[in-house]
Structure formats: structure tokens, C-alpha cells
Amino acid sequence: MTTAPVRPPLVRSSDRVIAGVCAGLANHLGWPVRMVRIGMVVAALAGGAGVAFYAWLWIMVPTADESARRNARRPASPIAPAVSAPGFSGALGVPGTPADPGTPGTPGTLDAPGSPTPGSWWSKVPGMPFGKEILLGAGLLLAAGILIARLLGVDVPLGTLIPVAAILGGAAIAWMQLDETRRAGLVDRTKADQAGGWARLAAGLALVVAGVLVMVSGSGSWEQTWLALLASVAVLGGVALVLLPWGLKFWRDLETERAGRVRATERAEIAAHLHDSVLQTLALIQRRAGNEHDVIRLARAQERELRGWLYRDADKEAGQLSESIKAAAAEVEDALGHAVEVVSVGDCVMTQRHEALVQAAREAMLNAARHGGSAVSVYLEVTDAAAEVFVKDRGPGFDPDSVPPDRLGVRESIIGRMNRHGGTAAIISSPGGTEVRLRLPVAAASAGNAAAAANNANGEAKP
Amino acid sequence: MDDHAIFRSGLKADLDPDIVVAGEAGTVEDAIAVIAAQRPDVVLLDVHLPGGRGGGGREVLAGSAPLLATTRFLALSVSDAAEDVVSVIRAGARGYVTKTISGAEISRAVRRVAGGDAVFSPRLAGFVLDAFGTAPADIADDELDKLSARELEVMRLIARGYSYKEVAKELFISIKTVETHVSAVLRKLQLSSRHELTRWAAERRLL
């Protein structure tokens, strides 16, 4: 497994026939998949070598997801863009949308585009990375040697070798646990994992016991064997009785220590976050204490970022409409310094049409913050029938009909855009404030309709 | 009732001069004692109050339960997480405002609560709509379980950032009627054990 640095790592591909071994191997070696598969089949026909090789790779090579999870480093702390760049002006990226710097430590996801990226935990690479592979390879070589020796007519004492192999195999299976648990880290210990662990332990135990039994019974009568078995069980029981309290205490200590470590990690994560965000912002605020506008803007941006971090919904996946609206609101808030309060009810996954809704809403927010000159309220409601966005400010208001035709902001970016995508937009303005109402029905306009409407920019192109 | 002395003094300075501050407290125990001794009309209650058994504002509300008829509680917090907001409302608070609110607004909110009405911020209205769903009630439904069409309209407008006055103007009803609707919604939020509300709360680990 010495790989040239340019090669993609050896992982089982998600593009699989059986277990993704061939595809992964082909990707790793840079050979065509078809060749590798044919080669594997040919090898399998040649005395089963291919099957053994395949099985070995299947066991030893992690899937792309596993590999990614294992290699994943902690993601960089979510730093509010507003606080990380001291010299910026109004032009700010939307947090989350710009090309993410990405996690360079996850090369394993190359061939699995849709694979979920890693949690924030990463476990240590075990001390001897290839120990297992070497052991298994040696075992297989040994087996091959024995088979060849038998073919050549040498008398091999199979009667003792098979039980020994069984014992060794069972022990190996049981010992593999150790590595597994370490690799699993602290949070990945799901129930399924534990069930697998127990099954493995039972299998290992059964193999070892069977091996021992066969070996012992080969040399004596069954009565003797039973007696010996009984005696050993009794001894084992006695030992267990003596060691149990000690073992339990040890286990408890381990649990306590583990809990402590989890807490310490959490604390470290919080400290890192606060350092990267709040402390930086506070430092910035001190430096710019004279500029009230800057201070308010920084405080707002930091508050938003911290809120997002504290109250984030872990289950909520990205790419939801409410997230996009909030991101747009954050952008406007950073750019113009007026608070933009977003309240959302219901949610849905973003589509291309929702993108238009977000753009229109963003334009409305910009206008509201620019001309309203005060806090902006944004309300998003997603129902089965439609997605609606209301943007309200308390500015002096304006007459939508009196806007000169060359001003594209309202007419084109809001009304025109909504109409093109099968939605509606209304602007209600009074001296007490202005409200922009955007509505995008779920019943989608057909693609052709939308395209035709796109040409008719200013018209009432509603399907 | 807030554990940050600086915030308390700032708040006192911000409140309208005709609102008399009867007492202050920084912990759950102090708060319950002060409220019992002073019997104020309105208690401004921080959601995350230290002390007690860690229940914060909710615990103060529970400890002052016999006084709920005469003393009104207005919850005040930097947090606008659903669990904080809805749990204090269900514990008996008559309203909820965030700490970034201005002095004039908070004075108005205090007066409104003192008058027996509910104070809904846009975010709280959003939570209500989220919890009760946005479909109006059928006649057959248990009245506690769903919002009427009118109540929904009022909630929507509040969520959109309308003041009570603007809501009244928009719906061609009096401010008094708006307040009645809002109080009804508050009562439903506090009393309803509706299946969906329970599920919504459970999803957010509120109960």
C-alpha cells in the first residue's frame, strides 16, 4: 500500500458491482475499471486467488465515506466574514455561499460526489497503520504454502493446524475490536456499531472455543474433554468473580475519563469559536469605538453569527429556502447597517424558482434598508400552496407609480423577476412605511412558459 | 429580574419615568422573594436567570404561580430560540420581547401587559404560526387547538412586522379587537395540549 503521492487513495468506490473494490482499485491505479474487473474474474477462476484477493480488499479497504470521515479534520471555525476582514467596506460575501475553502484533508471523496462530509470529530490514526494487513497477508501466505505443500505430497498435520488457525482467527477477530473502537472515536458509537461489535466478539469466541475443543479432544476421550471443559469453565467463572469488581471499576473510570474528555473537547471548541468570532469583534469594536455606524454593524453581524452558532438546528440541512433568505438578509444588514429581522414559518428545499424569489426579496430588502432608513422586517411563509415573502420597513414611503421608468430596481428586479417565474409581486407604500409582498405559487410554470415570459420582460407574463 | 446588574440599571434608565421600579433581583430565589414582597403590576423577567434549580424564568413563574392573577410577567431575553420563548409563555408570561428592544418600546410593552394584554413580537408570532399551522380552524375542531381565520390573519401581520395599530388599520378593526385576538392566541398557546403543538414542542425539546 505504498502509494505515489499523486494517486488517489485506495478506497472502495460507491460505483459498485459487489463492494466497489474493483472500481476503487482502478481509480487508485489509474487503470480502466473494465480491465480490473476482467482481471479479477480471471484471477478468481485461477484457483480462487481473485476471490481471496477481492475478499481481502473488501475487508481491509475502507469505503470512500469511511475514509473521508476518518481523515476529516475539524472544520474551520465559522467566522463571521464581517469580523474576519477588518478593512472591508460594504461588499460582503454571503456567509456560506462563496466557494467554501473546503476541507483539504478529505481527498477520499473524489469518486463519491454525493458522499456526506464529515462530522467535526476525527480520531487518531492508529500507531501501526498496516499491522492488520501484514498479519492477514502473512496468514494467507502461510495457508497458500500449506496447500502447495500438500499438493506436492508433503504430509501436513491438518488435524492440529486447522484448530490452531481457528483459534488464531477468532482471536484476531476479537482483537480487531480494539482498533475499531479507537477508530470509531467518541461519537460514532451508534447502536448498530455496538451490535456489530458484539456479533464479532461472539464469532471470535465461538471460533476460539471450537478450536480449543477440537484440539483438546483430538488427544483424549470425550469424557476427559468434558471434564476438562467443566473444570476450565469453573476456573474461568472463579477468575471472573474475582476480577469483575476490578473490571467494573476500571470500566467506570474509563467512562468518567471519556466523559471528561468529551467535555474538554466541547469546551475547546467553544473557546476556539469565541476566540475566532466574539473576541475578534470586541477587539475591532474597541479600535473603532469612534465610528458608531461601524460599531453597530459589527455588533449586529457578530450577534447574528453567534446566534446562528448557538441555536443552529443540527438536523436542518443546508439549501433550505429560509436559510437563503436569512443569508440575503445578513448580506443586506452588513452592507447597509440596518437591522433586518427575519421570521420564517415553514420551509422548503431551494429550487431555481426559489432562487428568483430570494433575489427579489434581497432587492426588496436592499431598497427597504436604503430608503426606509430603519429596521426591516422580513417574513417568510411557506405553505403547501405557495412561498410568500413580505419585506416591510418604516420609512417615509414612496409612490410606486412615480418611480421613473429608467429606475430598474423595483420594476425589473422585483416585479419583473417575480412575474417571469410565475409569481406575483405587490408594493404597498404609505407614509407609515413600505411593504413588498412577493408570492411564488408552488404549481410551477412549465419551463417553456417561463422562458417565453423571460423575453417579455415588462409585461404581465403570468402563466 | 435579570442577572446582569448593568443591564438592569440600563433598563431602569430607559424606562419611561412614570413606570416605577418596585424591586430588582438577580437570581431565581431573590426574584420569587421580591415578587412576593412587592406584588408589582408587571415583572420584567429574564428567561435565563441563574440560581434555583436551573429553570430560569420558568421557575420564577412557577414559584409565583399564586400571584399570576394580579402580577403580569413580561419575558425578556437575548435569546430568541423557540424553546426559550415558548416555554416561558406556556409557563404563564404574557409576552416576550428581546433585549435589543428600545426603551420606548419596552415601556409600551410594559403598559400593554399591565393592561392585561399580550405582547407579541414578530418572532413569537412566527413561532405561533409554526406551532399551530397556517390552516384556519374548522368549526368542528376543538377551539383550543387551532387558530381562527381572524387570529391567523392577525398573527401573520404581526409576524410581518406590523404594530397592533397597523394591524387594526389593515384589517379594518379596532385596536381593542386586535388585542382581544392576540390575548386569545396567547391563551391557546398556554392551554392547548393539541397533538400538533405537542409534537412541534417535542421536536424542539420544549416539554
CATH architecture of the largest domain in chain B: 3-Layer(aba) Sandwich
Number of helices of chain A: 14
In which range does the helix fraction of chain A lie? Answer: 55-70%
Mean pLDDT level of chain A: 70
Radius of gyration of chain A: 33 Å
Uncertain residue segments of chain B: none
Please, what is the CATH homologous superfamily of one domain in chain A? Answer: Histidine kinase-like ATPase, C-terminal domain
N-to-C series of helices and strands of chain B: HHEHEHEHHHHHH
What share of residues of chain B is helical? 40-55%
Q: What is the total number of structural domains of chain B?
A: 2
> What is the annotated CATH architecture of one domain in chain A?
2-Layer Sandwich
Structural class of chain B: mainly alpha
Question: How many angstroms separate the termini of chain B?
Answer: 24 Å
Kindly identify the CATH topology of one domain in chain A: Heat Shock Protein 90
Characterize the quaternary organization of these chains.
heterodimer
**Which of globular, elongated, flat, extended, rod-shaped describes the shape of chain B?**
globular
Q: What fraction of the residues of chain B are assigned to beta strands by DSSP? A: 5-15%
Query: What class would the helix/strand composition of chain A place it in?
Result: alpha+beta
CATH level 1 name of one domain in chain A: Alpha Beta
How are the SSEs placed, and which strands pair?
The complex is a heterodimer of chains A (463) and B (207).
Chain A: H1 21-29, H2 33-45, H3 49-60, H4 64-71, H5 81-84, H6 131-151, H7 158-184, H8 191-219, H9 222-287, H10 292-310, H11 321-336, E1 340-345, H12 352-372, E2 376-382, E3 386-393, H13 408-420, E4 424-430, E5 433-441, H14 447-455
Parallel strand pairs in A: 1-2
Antiparallel strand pairs in A: 2-3, 3-5, 4-5
Helix pairs in contact in A: 1-2, 2-3, 7-8, 9-10, 10-11, 11-12, 12-13
Chain B: H1 5-14, H2 28-38, E1 42-46, H3 57-63, E2 72-77, H4 82-91, E3 96-98, H5 103-114, H6 122-132, H7 149-159, H8 164-171, H9 175-191, H10 195-203
Parallel strand pairs in B: 1-2, 2-3
